[in-house]
User: Fold these one by one.
Assistant:
Number 1:
Amino acid sequence: MNKLLVFLLVFLTFGKISKAQDTIFTIEGKRIVAQKIEINNDNGNYICYKINGKSKSINRNRIYAITDSTGKKIIFYTKIATSAENSFFYAKSIKKNDHLQKYYYQNVDGKNDSIDIKNVFSISDTNGIRKIYYSTFCLVNRELIFGKNIKIDKKEGKYFFQTALNHYKSLKIKDVYTITDSTYKILVFYNTIELINKKVVFAKQIIKIKYDSCYYQSIDGQLGKIKMADVFSISDTIGNVKFYYNSIVSLEGENIITKSFRKTGTSECFYGDLRGNEKEIDIDDIFSVRDTLGKETVYYKQDTLKGFYDSPEEMKQYVYGMVDAKKQYKAPFYTYVGAGVSLFAVTGIVTSGVGYLFWTPLIPVVYTGIILKSKPNVEQITNAIPEKLRTEKYFTGYITQVKRKRVNNAILGSVGGLFLGWIGFFAIDGL
């Protein structure tokens, strides 16, 4: 960690760290914006920093990089992304053995380990240079598949490629939404039509938009038609997006699609919902409003008297973390398990005696309490978040919504299972 010591000592000498905001990137994927960074003289294994005047510390082995206020970035570890699990880890040093087809490395805790060359998706060195060894297929079902030596056979309508395990596989051309190659070049093959119910329709071609309908060619080559009243936005293959509704992003991470929006007075706002009804929303509940031209107007203001301690940029990261989690994190497991637990528990309790039926409502309470106390898989969630979005606030917002979704699904599943158990009992009892 000599590079870290040199970096910190230089900045402490010239007084830059104490006067400007710097950023700490941790190996857990978080980004910490600090007002001051300094070495803990009592324990050199820790770096002290301040946020909003409060002193905190972090083990220096957990720091991936530090960026100063001028944008200069010092990276302390090599970052290795694996192809098999779509995850990554950090190494103090790394060496390639072509004969054994392995990379030998020393991890952040100083232990020696190795990984097969075929399982490495990319390596980012301490100079910020990233070498990618696989291309990435993004399918229309949003699944990601890594491959190399890609060949296309238009006659068969397939892509043929080699996997990390050197197996040869194929994909139907029509199932591939994008391909990102080892130079970061992205090829987009379909237009996308996002509906107001959050569903996405992939189209080879947007034929025309006439009157109240959008005509398109589906990925199967069939002619399709969608009512424009159901279309929120249309994106083409070169990144242009056309919006057909306004949208309000609330501080609770809700993305409200609206026909109209108007602000009256200092705090009252009104919007027209999709049914044509006008509803009121307080301006303190709104982060931003985006119009049909894609222009976003931020209404959130930092105000400690109202409890709004975050800057607009920090709040944006937090809110959009919640918005993205709502789109991406489904957690059906907690619904199914909750339903199963309640159903089987009711069955077991009733067989012990009908009098115990009185206690069955406690089943959803206990199950939900267990889920509430349990912690999400942070590493898995971090890997699902694009690296450029992994700020501390975005991650906090994302995790907040993940916890809510887990609890809501636990309640839904366990209560549903409870009612099914009751219905089953009374149905059998009435026979």
Number 2:
Amino acid sequence: MEAKTKQVLYVVRGGETERMHTVPHINGYSVAQHSYGVVSLLLILHPNPPLELIRTALWHDTSEHYTGDVPAHAKWDFPELKAAIDSAERSLSKHMGMGEEFLLTKDEQHWLKSCDLMELWLWSRNQIRLGNTRARIVMERIETFFGNLVPEVYALWRDLYREDGDYGREDDDDRYFVAKK
């Protein structure tokens, strides 16, 4: 099989991988959906995102079709598991010629991590609005990291948090997208 064909199949299979399988949720949540959100946040919030950052953001979780989406709390509780998974994911990404997080500058890594967390926070927020109270713990865990976000992502979170208050309001309907008369 040609190398480019293998890369295409790797990306397709990676995008189909289900995220958050340990948290019951409404509708699916694939790596492709997540990656689209991360890249969209980068393109909207970053003043001039480098191509390598966009590539890495787009493909940063594709290896999960091989390793699975190992829950963060499992990695926190078992550092040896985190080290093994990180090593496997780096090896798979390098082997497939995909974006490699370790090639990014510290600033780019910070942007990627910030948008990665923000996208998951937005997913959790949406789950709660759909009635899935089990997503609240995900949201609360993510928020413990928000003091370390890049300022542009933190400002977005602050604006949404101020708008939401207790996460229970459902007023972010299409009125934001309708032109004022």
Number 3:
Amino acid sequence: MYILGIWDGHDAGAALLKGDHIVFAINEERLRRRKLEVGFPSLSIRACLDYEGVPASSVREVALSTSDPAKTLTRLAPGLKEEYYLIRRRKMRPRRSDPFKKRFKYRFTELGPNTLTRRLTRIYARRKLKDEGLDRFNLSLLDHHQCHAEAAARSSGFDTCLVLTLDGVGDGLSGSIWQFNGDRLTSIRKISSTVSLGIFFEHVTNLMNMRELEDEGKVMALANYAYPIADHDNPLMQLIGVRGLQLVSPFTSMGMYRELKRILWQYPSEQFAYMAQRVLERRTLALIRNALDLTAEHNVALAGGVFSNIKLNMKIAQLPETGDVFVFPHMGDGGLAIGAAIGANYERRGVRGHTLTDLYLGPAFSDNDILASLQRWGFPYARSDDAPGRAARLVLDGEIIFWFQGRMEIGPRALGNRSIVARPDRKEIKDRLNLVLKKRVWYQPFCPSILGTDADALLYLDGQDIRCNRFMTAAFRVREAHQQLMEGVTNIDGTCRPHFVGDENPKYRDLLIGVKKKLCKGVVLNTSFNIHGDPMVCTPEDALDMFNRTEVRYLFLGDFLVMKG
């Protein structure tokens, strides 16, 4: 009955499915404590099996994503992947050979899979899985963008929809367009890897001295501080265009990099970021309009790293041609393990859909686990009979609190189980969080958690069903009457990236209800429980370690309140 999905590239991880239920999912970074880990997800596989209490030998179906030559090479020579990881994350200084390696990387990653790479990937996967105790199993090998599409379509809840995937590159593609009829995904167009909106934005991020595949959100945030420039005066618009359902460009990947570098010299950073954001929006919107016109669909499901851009997602939702828009919450490559398992589950078992009632798919820890960690660290603590109420009072008093509850979230966003929580209306709290605790750039905004019942009062929903994007996957405009209340969670352009809370998380909901008693609306500042650049905390040990390294005075570990001073 089980299907194990695995991904062993950027933000590696594993997922375990049973029937139409996602039993467990986790990314390797949370267990190895290396942000966006790239190695084989051994610990994630073990965590999946341990949670369900089943031996590895009981898994008869395994799904793996991506078998292009570049991915196959890094599987056979993992040192190459590790070196790129260290350079990309600024853990290793550049060397003289790096420009050559960069040119080779972008050319080589454009190649699609072939018979040899698929065969070598199968040999590699079987050997690695055998080391984890899996012996007799069927191995499904799914294409990169198919996995993104399967995840988006089959967890959207739509009866029919257009499906669009866009990222850097994978299996020779930078994107794909599909039509979903509630049962079968039909490929409409494959977008060649030779022109990539994901690579375009990756180049922009890199040229601005930020970490590609990680800091694209900073580019999006910085763009809000630029003086607007008309699209017809934007030189970046000439670098990439849309013709029907294809992306076109007069430049190769490295040619585009050199042209971007030349243009950047003439503009301040915020202006350059603005121009790049406009290109991303204009070209993606054109693709979607053309695809909607061709398919006569209205609802849209999206996945791939490009759709981590919440401003783009808001613009898509505002198109008059679109109905509801669903963004798969783990849209980047970290979601490929889930997508691979979902795709194989349909191909092998005919399971059409998987409902995401919540994203609490990771490990949980018992009171005994928490107490054992508390005793090791020696902080004063007490059991709280009303943790949500006590937490709400501390937040209202201006405290920043650490909030650790239940099962860990899957994906890049904290959703009330591994969260740092504060008042939403204090700019000084936002600045303290940014500069002292989270150690992020000053212009990067924080996000709100909002009671679903208060969403319409606080935000312009523009006719969107908030159930499609409850997990911080799209921006919404804050109503003018409540901008002061949400000063600490609103971007300079008047938008925010909300998490909508309902009955799926009773403790966190009750915390918001407690805050609402004084603020009249259920809203708090919510950011991930980590220091910027580190993975989100996973275990009580991780939480107590961060508590020890910061000046925050209150940590809620389940029903235990841990205090300093």
